[in-house]
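Hey, I'm writing a tutorial for new members on how sequence and structure tokens pair up, and I'd like a real worked example in the thread rather than a made-up one. If someone can provide the structure for the chain below, I'll link this post from the tutorial.
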Amino acid sequence: MNISPDLISQIEKLFNEYSGGCPLCLIIQDDKEKINLELLSRKFRVKPINEMVVKFRKIKDVAIEVVA
């Protein structure tokens, strides 16, 4: 998977659309190199509702998990 400007734009749009009070942690995985990079967003906090999860799952190469 390539992290393109279009992919970043799609993700940022959803973060802004579902802005809320929950911390946001991103995990970028490179299966080929067997690397996981965990990032805590300082810029975005989200409101993790079902509608947001459904929209994220429609983005190719993006997985989402809501952790309580």
